[in-house]
Write a structure and sequence with these properties.
Rossmann fold; alpha/beta; 24% strand; 220 residues; elongated; single chain; 7-stranded mixed sheet
Length: 220
């Protein structure tokens, strides 16, 4: 069984399904681990380049899985998978994949953007997917893992319990749990931004959200 780093271990813990599809799986380490641990019964790896497709196909040989050479959800039929993961991409790329074939997205999806998790959270709100869990895996840098379940068009209730803008930028479940590592991460990020005389508008928006959250926590 391949050794998963903390990022993919955290992703794997969110997945328990009959058939799981992984887009951009590269060496298919996640799918191999899920199959061998019994967390899924069947796996589908989808790659849009020949080399990672070949690597995934080789890794999945002799397992109840297959690799497909396709562009994102082009490689998945409606209702074919029970869950889906997309990891290690920028949020812009992940959202573009999801928006191209919304009918092909399974009811459960686990997403790990390398940056701009707020774009994923905005997608979830506009697409009728509720954020049912989010975790941070601390590795080379903090990785945000977002777990969504199809729920309909009603407002995701988790955002009603926090400062909405701060929830989008920092994570509503993370804000509610207030884990020690997360709080320390926000304090470190605040200190980082405060050392600059000028920062971009998006960085200022994030700093302002961190300031509001920490001020409330410090006062409580």
């Amino acid at each position: 069984m391949p050794r998963l780093d903390e990022r993919l271990k955290t992703v794997a813990r969110q997945i328990k399904a009959a058939t799981h599809a992984d887009i951009g799986s590269d060496h298919a380490n996640l799918l191999v681990a899920l199959l061998r641990s019994g967390r899924i019964a069947r796996g589908i790896a989808i790659e849009n380049k020949q080399q990672p497709f070949t690597q995934s196909r080789n890794a999945l040989r002799n397992l109840n899985a297959e690799a497909r050479l396709a562009d994102g959800l082009d490689g998945l039929e409606i209702g074919e998978a029970d869950s889906l993961s997309i990891c290690g991409m920028g949020a812009e790329s992940i959202v573009a994949i999801l928006e191209r074939h919304p009918a092909r997205i399974p009811k459960l999806i686990v997403l790990q953007p390398n940056r701009r998790a707020d774009l994923i959270r905005k997608w979830g709100i506009s697409s009728g997917y509720h954020l049912v869990d989010e975790q941070i895996a601390f590795g080379h840098w903090p990785y945000t893992i977002l777990t969504y379940r199809k729920a309909g068009s009603e407002l995701d209730p988790v955002y009603q319990k926090v400062d909405h803008q701060a929830g989008l930028l920092l994570g509503p479940w993370l804000l509610q749990r207030r884990d020690t590592e997360f709080v320390e991460m926000l304090r470190e990020e605040r200190a980082y931004w405060l050392q600059f005389k000028q920062i971009s508008d998006s960085s200022r928006e994030r700093l302002d959200a961190i300031q509001r959250v920490l001020e409330v926590w410090d006062a409580s």
